[in-house]
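User: Need the bound-state model for zinc ion:
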Amino acid sequence: MPEIAQVEPLTTARSLRGPFDYRLPDSLRGVEVGSLLVVPFGRRRVLGVVTGLAETTDVPPERLVAPLEARELGVPAELVRLAQWMALEYCSTPARALSLVLPPGTAAGMRERRALVAELTPDGRAVADETAPVGTTLGSRQLAALAALRDGPLPAADVPGGHGTLRRLEARGLVTLGSRVRARRPEHSSVGAAAVDAPALTPAQRAALAPVSAAIAAGHPERFLLHGVTASGKTEVYLGATAAALERGRGAIVLVPEIALTPQIVGRFEARFGPTVAVLHSGLGEGERHDEWLRLRRGEARVCVGPRSAIFAPVTDLGLVVVDEEHEASYKHEGDPRYDARRVAERRAADAGAVLVCGSATPRPESVRALTRLRLAERVDGRPLPPVELLDMREVRGALHPRAHAALEEVRRAGGKAIVLLNRRGWSNFLSCRSCGRVWECPDCDVALVLHRAEGAMACHHCGHRERAPRACDSCGSTSVARHGTGTERLEAELAAAFAGFPVFRLDADAAAGRGAAGRVLAAFDRAPAGVLVGTQMVAKGHDFPAVTLGLVLDADATLRFPDFRAEERTFALVTQLAGRAGRGPAGGTVLVQTLTPESAALVRAARHDSDGFVAEELERREALGYPPFADLIRIVCASAQPGAAGRAAAAVRARLDVPAASVLGPAPLFRLRGRERAQVVVKARDRAAAVRAVGAAVEAVAADRAHRAAAFSVDVDPQ
Ligand code: ADP
Ligand code: ZN
Ligand code: ZN
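Assistant: Bound-state model below.
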């Protein structure tokens, strides 16, 4: 029996060199790779993950200590390996990578299936329903907590205001609190859920599914790209592949970009497979996530549907990994480690011997090059893709082209539905003083503040800074303030004014703030007999609203203007995806795209539904410029509040970088963010692993140099 456990302490320190050895007493001989132990660490007690077991150690016996206790739940060994790989792949630390694969709630010390649950008393219900007067005044937090409990008991952690508020309500006899054992199966809004039975597949769907099922049956870890136009029935192929995996006694992970925006796909998996489907996402309370995780860990659930973090779901005997809408940028994680769930999915599938299926109507050039392509060239039922017309806005004043106005008016008169996309939230993009020209900027970032009129506030969309909307200019006192540009908030108001009697629904990060809000907007639009859905790129996700006959894109150039090599790809995808929302029903549809550059290749290709032509041209361009997939990008950002320090640190990193066969760009200044100057260095690498190592070494050396104490460093492999 091994006597030594190698433990990686879960601390955020970058400089720590784990794992560390601990002596296992007889009582802990059952620990395995992935077990969670509380260990003495210096003078602290910390939680650690067992990454290995050994018979011997170099640590002298007098210094070898024992763990304090073991947690009842651990992590599967394969996820420990995955995390270790991720730490190297993304230039992070094992502890940070491991923290991503822990059971939900572990850090907070949650125990299995015991949660403090709050419930309204009859008095509490009367107050919450406003059928009884409140004796003495209740605070706004207390009222919010009561309102949250109206639909039934909730884990205390999920009630706004937290424990303190609940204890005060308990003292007043409005709420009871008890430790309860209760299943916390999450509820989902199942907008437009499909029927339970699988429809007969179309010949094209059958042809696409066959090689996937064959690979699953044979246990070959093949990798497929399901390149299918919008509404071609890709989801039905994922469902078929999942059924094939389950038949073989194997599990599946299905990644979707954002649960809140795609409740339909969750609904379809649950309708088809019932309780063997677990859902993991951040919109659930910690208790619910914990329970779903446990159901998977125990094998009670075999299929996990969720956003990028679901790639770490403890699905046992994994046979299939699906990445739906694989072009979506939300698969990239912005915290450390900055992992890309698509790449992690490839790795996890390969390790498990599972089949990978990535699907999209607008696949990334990277995937087209690397994966075996399967096609769904037509929509289900052979309905045509909607014609896309580009509208030249160079001569037009106002937000809407006359053609767009007429088309919306027609939909209104017919009592139909339309979707309007404007990728900019708020009322106006920026404000300026008509008399002295001052522009209102964020005090902490070098960007203009955006007016949010309903709140009477100006907001920074980069750091979240908010201030009151100005009545007068601070510099000259003038009260004449100009509002420039149009965001979704203003567009909503303008459409409501211009098209009387046509209900307007708005979906953007502001309208969808708060749990379930996005789903409610989508459900309301779905239920309404007629109306227009206005919003940011959120409206172009995989929604299936058959009554939508018109899609309209305003300012299609906004994404093209981004200084990013993926600008064309993003623009092409956005227009194509919005077109995908239109004409899904028997009435057909049209798409109008307002632009200042109607000659741009990305828009012309999108208007022709020419995804192959676009990808071919894009691959050529990227090869010529040395961009992915022909090279890997690694981005190092140095930031500091001290003037000049970020630039000096970036220069020092650049000087220390010794990367074989790579070109290095920079240091280049970035705009100031959150009060810190920033500078970046970008490496275009041919040998990814060597470059990641070289970057890690250079950053570590500069970070350890006292001369660069004032700077913070972040490394992003495959930046988006
Ligand atoms: P995609 O994921 O490619 O956008 P979906 O899978 O959502 O497409 O399919 C579009 C619509 O067609 C959905 O309403 C779906 O229920 C329906 N559908 C898909 N496959 C079939 C089929 N074989 N028979 C009948 N209806 C289908
Ligand atoms: Zn002024
Ligand atoms: Zn800011």
